[in-house]
Amino acid sequence: MQCVSTYHWVWLQFFYPVRTTLFLMRLLTYLQQTHSIARRKLVQMIDQGKIFLNDQKVDSYTAEIQEGDKIRVLGKNDEAKPSTVQHSASLLLFNKPKGFVVAKSDPHEQTIYRILPHEYQKWYYIGRLDKESHGLLLMTDDPQLVHEYEHPSHGIQKEYVVELDRQLGPKAKQECTLGVKDDGDILKAVKVMINRNRRWKWFFYNVILQEGKNRHIRRMFKKLGYNVTDLQRVREGKYILGDLKKGHRKLVKIQDSA
């Protein structure tokens, strides 16, 4: 997908082929993902009355868009012609190694894009893994697919292998599935199971999440008095990490992603 700079276009019409899942996402999220425009800049443009949705000036930071909507963004070049985006999605399975942050850019840390080939530099990540976590990260060239996978209403589960600093007690295990409150969030797991494939199995657990918040697993166990010493994502929806080596990737057909 061609990235068009904010300073070289006046308005764009975004169009996607109809799918079984309704395309519905935040306008700001869409512009951030498709054109790498910083949220702060977008908020400023809304305040200045420079963003229009279906010919109506956008006055809400939480405005949502769906298929067929027209988005107009005022820039410096008022002679720019409209563009129509038509796109079929692709999905990439990437085994993220430790030491890299999942972000488009970071002034202090190395991002995953540093180790990805040129053809994936404009792709979008689905969900995140923190710097010290590793494992399966899904990526796509279609922002609609990002929404379909990240929105809790779609019920896509993620599975992790978690190493703790000590054995998890039965009460703490139960609290994980009931929910732990931390900083206003309810952090809970669908299931927590002993991973019997590891040599020191009493310290390794498979944790399944239905909805992931920022540093969800680390915060949940920390609140219960445990430290996570290693965290690896091994499954997201129907996709598994398998024997994909660290830093390696595999492209899959989008029709297989349902």
Brief synopsis:
With 258 residues, the protein is of the alpha+beta class. Helices cover 17% and strands 29% of the residues. It has three domains: 6-85, Roll (Structural Genomics Hypothetical 15.5 Kd Protein In mrcA-pckA Intergenic Region, Chain A); 88-155 and 248-258, Alpha-Beta Plaits; 157-236, Alpha-Beta Plaits (2-Layer Sandwich), CATH 3.30.70.
Topology:
Blueprint: E1 11-14, E2 24-26, H1 27-35, H2 39-47, E3 51-53, E4 56-57, E5 64-66, E6 70-73, E7 84-85, E8 91-96, E9 124-126, E10 134-140, H3 143-150, E11 158-164, H4 170-178, E12 180-182, E13 185-187, E14 191-194, E15 204-209, H5 216-223, E16 228-236, E17 239-240, E18 249-252
Parallel strand pairs: 1-7, 10-16
Antiparallel strand pairs: 1-6, 2-5, 3-4, 3-6, 8-10, 8-18, 9-10, 11-15, 11-16, 12-13, 14-15, 16-17
